[in-house]
Structure formats: structure tokens, C-alpha cells
Amino acid sequence: MTSKPARDAGGAPVDKPRVVIVDDHHLFRSGVRAELGEELVVVGDAGSVEQAVAVIGEKRPDVVLLDVHMPDGGGVEVIARVCEECPEVRFLALSVSDAAEDVIAVIRAGARGYVTKTISGAELAEAVRQVAGGDAVFSPRLAGFVLDAFAQGAGASDAGAQEHLADDRDLDQLTPREREVLRHIARGYMYKEVAQTLGISVKTVEAHVSAVLRKLQLSSRHELSRWAVQRRLVSLDGP
Amino acid sequence: MGVEVLVVRVMTVMAATVGGLGVAAYAMAWALIPATPDSTRSGRRPGAWRQAPLIVLTVAALFAGIHLAGSHVGEGLWPLVLGVCGMALLWRPAVAESDALDGGRPTLREYLNRPARVGAPRLIAGGLFVAFGSAALLHAVGVQHSLGKAIWAVAIIGLVVGLVVGPWVVRLGSSLSFERAARIREQERAEVAAHLHDSVLQTLALIQKRAGDPREVAGLARRQERELRSWLLKRPGEPEQDSAAVALERAAAEVEELHGVPIEVVTVGDAPLSGGLEAVVQAAREAMTNAAKFAGSERVDLYAEVEDDRVEVFVRDRGVGFDLEAIPADRRGVRDSIIARMERHHGRATVKSRPGEGTEVELVMERSDA
User: A19 near A64, Cβ under 8 Å?
Assistant: First the structure.
């Protein structure tokens, strides 16, 4: 995972990324194939974790469109098993599920972004291109989840903070700038618009988002998989 | 029971001095008639109500002892009374407080099916009563000299019967619990089926009918998706208390339904709905309505951040936009429903819009109620 940024620098944005679609719904796979066929090269698809690992290993696509929910382990399992063999493959999570814990789990496993299945074909193609180019794709919803996760972590874990070393703290908090960028994404701004509003370059916005993604994947203190459950409890009993 | 408990007890004590059968009758009644919620709610401690019969029975047992020692009147009767009292103690399942709290009086059947958790003191007392009663009865009938043989005979017969019937009883027990589990599963399945029938199948039928109108179909599908999602995420036993996030989601769903423009709702943090938050939700709803109605945008984004001391809501569209200064004075939507409403609650609303570049409404309010 940490070797990716170096690779990204070399890898210019790809015009027609090669894509594998992993989803246990046949209808959905053929739907995406039809929608993306124009703009991307769909080199294969898979309906189960086993198939996915085999197809990805054989085709070595640029991007895997990955369903979060599948029988026998889901997206997390696919990422875990593929990452060992082909670390250069990038994943974009795709789901109808808005349950925060599922989404955060896939991101932490290594997916470079998350979009909902209701996304339009053009937007999906653009998201795939971004992921192929090494960027992170944050939908407004994912940005909201992340803000929520880090807010909860900061507010509720003073006791936990003492157990951790100081250099871990950087991973456990968002900088004000990162927070500001995420908030704009959650408000529905495109990267370009965020850049305009905040008076920074698009590259800087992308760098902030990638940094957030890295924190999300490396941070240990939040124990983010448990956070989602807590979040519901807190919002229920909270002030 | 309808009759004052105390009256019953007094009558029973009187009857006990006459016969002793009264004690037996009372004990059996105590064992088999469940305590009604009324009797526990009448202010007396449940513990006291359950201890009382024990005391009565002990007194009765003392009387019985005196009787046995002194006279030979009704020799067979007192041991019987003792035995019955002991039985009553053993049979009466411990009525847990939770049972009383359930409200509603259990039927006799449910009552007998209840797992019999007998408290240790009562178990010992009941056992002693029964043993003492049986011994006394045997003594009275005059067979105690052959008691040893009889006990052996009973023990052996008991063992044999136990060996023969035991496995069957165990199997019966396990099949009963299996059946219960199956019944619970069946109930849950039926509930899910009923819900799917009322929601998803109805929507699918509607979609088939309106297949010619893509906008309508998309709206139906989205509404159903929302509904199903909230049903799936709902935790059982969750109080139906409204929170700011829930209220915003609902407002968005309503606006979406009315105007057919998808609204993407993202919330961070949450809080119970208060007067101020209610106003924010109303203002946000108005902003969403404007965006859906006039902007001609593909979709509307709503982002809400509820913190302990402050709430912020952004409603953004990518539609035609407008010039705020150019709104005629008689168009009151933005000024009254959004800006004035927020100001009444010590908040503020900012509208950023330029023709051709969409609109963003920002609502901010400090939370004094937190």
C-alpha cells in the first residue's frame, strides 16, 4: 500500500482503463458492461470471490469494480487475497449498501474509493479513470462517513489516546484543511469546485483526499470497524 | 382475583382451625392461581406477598405437629394436609418480577409450561413437608414396619421406569425446543414476507404499470429503496424518537417525491430534534423544495453537520441559479421561509447563487439547547 504513491507519480491518467467487474448479481454486471463499454475496456467479470481472484490474477486489470456485499466474504475478502499477488491492481467499491461499517471496512481493506450503484454511467467512468490514475474517489456519502468517524474518534477517546504513541496521533486526526476539503466533498462539490472555492489547485485537493484515505487505512486507534456500531449508539443516547 | 387477598387469608385461617382442609385448599390455590399484576401493583412489596404464605404454612405445620402428638382425631387428614402444602410449595414456579411486569395474566397453559424455577428455600421446605407428611401418613395407616422393603421396591421400579422412559422424555424435550425454534423462524419469515409484499411487490406492480414513464419509475424505485433501507437498518426496539438526521432524511424524501428530483442526503453527527433544529429542518426543506422546483438540476445535495454547539446545513444544486437581488418582493419563499425563519431562531441563512452556476443555501445555528 505504501509503495503506491511512488508508482502513481509515474502512471499518467489512463484513457481507457481495463476493468474487471465483480458482483454477484448477473444483471448488474451486464448492466455496467453495457454502460461502460464505450468509455472503458471491460476485460472480465466475476460473480464470486473465487472467480474474482482467478479472473483478476489472469487479466491484471487497472481497476476492479468491486461489490461490497457478496456471499462468502464480500469485497474485503477479494482485496485481501488479490493484494498479495497483484498489488498494482486498484479497487473501487460499489454498493447499494449505505451501512457505514461495510463501506469503511472495504476502504480500510484497500479500496481507493466508494460510489453507490445509483451513480450514472458517465460519473462511474470518470470515477474509474480517477482511481486508475492513482486518485482516491470520495463520494459525498463516503466523505460524510469519514468526517463522522474522525469526529467520533476525537471526541470520545481521550482515555484511549493516552495508550498510544505520539506519532500515531497524526494518523488519528484530520488536519483542518483535510476536514475542510472533505466537508466540501460531502456538500456535493467536485474536486475542481473544491479547489476553486478554497483557492488551491486540483492537485492539492487530490493530495488531501489521498492523505485522508491513507489515514483511514493506517489509523489503528479508531478501530473504525467498531466505530460504526458505536456511532449508532452515540447518536441515539447522545446530547 | 377480584377478592381482597387479606380476606381470603383470614377466611382460610378460620377454616384451618376447623378442619385443616382449608389450609390445603389455600395452598393449592396459591400454587395454581398466578399472582395478578394488580396484586403486585397495589403497593405491597412483591417479596412480602410471596413470603406470607410460607409463614401461614409454617404455622399450619406447627398446629399439625401438635395435633399429631395430642389427639387421634382425623389421623389420616393432617398428614394429607401437610403433603398437599408441600406439593403446593414445590409446584408453584418462582414468579419472577419480569413475569409480573409483562402485564396481562398468563393463561393456565402458559403458566404450566413456564420453566419451573423453584427457589432453594421453598424447595427444601416443600420437600420436608412432603416427606414428613408421607411418613406421618404411613405411620397413621400403620405400615411403617415394612417401610424399608417398600422403599426398595419403589426405588427399583422407579429406576426401571426411568431407564425405559428416560430417553423418550429427553427426546420429547429436545424436539419441543426444536419445534419452538422452527416456529420462531417461521414467524420471522412470515413477517419479512408480509413486509416485502406490502412494500416491494406493490412497488414492482406499480412500476410495471407505469413502465412508459421513466421519471415516474425512477421516483418509485428510489422511494422504495429508501423505505427498504430504513427498514433494514432499523434496530428492533429502537424508540421512535425523532432526531435531526432522521427529520432531514424524511424532509428530503418528501421533497423528492413531490418534485421528482433525487436528493442525496449526507449527515454527520446527530441530535434529538429541538425547537431550533426543527426550524433548521424546515428551512432546509424549503431550500430543497426551491432547488427541486426551480433549479432544473439533475440532483440536489444536502449536507448536515450537527455538533454539540452548532449545526450547519448546506443545500446545493447545479441548476440555473438566480440573482438574489432580482427576486421580486412578492416571492416570499427564500426571504420568509429560509432567511427570516433562521433569524427568528438566532441562526442565519446565506444564499450563494449566480445565474448558470447553481445555488447553495447555507444554514447555520448555534445550539443553545445542548
Answer: yes
